[in-house]
Write a structure and sequence with these properties.
two-stranded antiparallel ribbon; binds iron/sulfur cluster; single chain
């Protein structure tokens, strides 16, 4: 985990600069000091919600209290990661043989699900005191096991090639009218499997609700991960066993019992690159567009700082 330097400006503003010399709260004056824009899947996809909110969150960070869905989401993510680690001890060939013969192997797989004690022991410090939502956790894991059972019957290699792959890289991005802009990219890919054609299948686990309206943004997220793999250090990819072409991507919404696996879509990759350039332009212009969706503002913690709702001088 990179160390972070905090710079306090005025009463409220708190800017993080990471050890690699990048910041989500980048301004053109930081650029003059050699600091570069930092970009993640979350900052990139924030444009689909509100770019102004993303900028405010990084400039005026607020303590985010622990809420059930965040802790549960972490527990399910960790649970599945540990499940795959535990599964390495299983007789995979035998499980595959049973699954292909039509047997329900979900009860065999359940043995490898980490229990409450293992999950709580592996929580981040700030989550440790939170209650363990065993009903929600096990329900999510049950749905995941149904999916795993289906995969064992059809996948050549059911175990992931890599789990929780953290990628960090610096790359210059050509932005028309602005030149070549250095950007620090970061991201963690939940899972990388072998695709049916021998290429890589990038896979994301979500614990929220699925809606068909999320399709375009999910494809953009996956296109971002593909971009990270394609620009990562080849030696690191080789070490992780994922030095191959990305041919597929997919996602699993455990609580919605929904999954998608599909071939990569170049139109989504082009859309992701356009969004990336639009976000870089916002940083360079130091202007982050507020959303036009007033409904979104109703849920926003930053309304009091938002220029969209600023009281014009003289009206106060
Ligand atoms: S109040 Fe609305 S426009 Fe302003 S930051 Fe929040 S979501 Fe964006």
């Amino acid at each position: 985990m990179p160390r972070i330097k905090h710079i306090e400006i005025g009463v409220l503003m708190m800017i993080k600069i990471y050890d690699d010399g990048s910041s989500y709260a980048w301004t053109p004056s930081m650029g003059e000091k050699g600091i570069v824009i930092r970009m993640s899947k979350s900052t990139l996809t924030s444009l689909g919600w509100c770019a102004q909110q993303m900028w405010l969150q990084h400039n005026y960070p607020k303590e985010q209290g622990l809420v059930k869905h965040l802790v549960l989401g972490d527990d399910v993510h960790n649970g599945l990661e540990m499940f795959y680690d535990n599964l390495e001890k299983a007789d995979i060939d035998e499980l595959q043989r049973l699954a292909k013969s039509g047997a329900d192997i979900s009860k065999n797989l359940r043995k490898y699900i980490p229990n409450e004690e293992e999950i709580v022991n592996n929580r981040r410090d700030e989550n440790k005191e939170f209650p363990f939502y065993d009903e929600d956790y096990y329900r999510n894991m049950e749905w995941l096991m149904a999916y795993e059972t289906a995969r064992f019957a059809i996948d050549k290699t059911p175990l992931p090639l890599a789990n929780e792959v953290r990628l960090e890289l610096k790359k210059e991005i050509e932005v028309p009218g602005y030149g070549s802009i250095p950007v620090q990219f970061v991201g963690i890919i939940d899972r990388v499997f072998e695709a049916e054609d021998g290429g890589l299948l990038l896979f994301e686990l979500k614990t929220g609700k699925w809606s068909h309206y999320k399709l375009a943004s999910m494809r953009k997220e996956m296109a971002y991960y593909k971009f990270l793999i394609e620009n990562a250090d080849p030696a690191y990819l080789k070490e992780k066993g994922i030095d191959r072409t990305v041919t597929h991507w997919g996602w699993r919404y455990s609580a919605a019992d929904h999954w998608t696996i599909e071939e990569i879509k170049s139109v989504s990759e082009r859309g992701m690159m356009k969004t990336m350039r639009d976000l870089i332009k916002m940083y360079l212009d130091n202007h982050f567009k507020p959303t036009t969706n007033d409904m979104a503002c109703g849920y926003c913690d930053y309304i009091e700082l938002c220029p969209k709702y600023a009281i014009p001088m003289g009206d106060a």
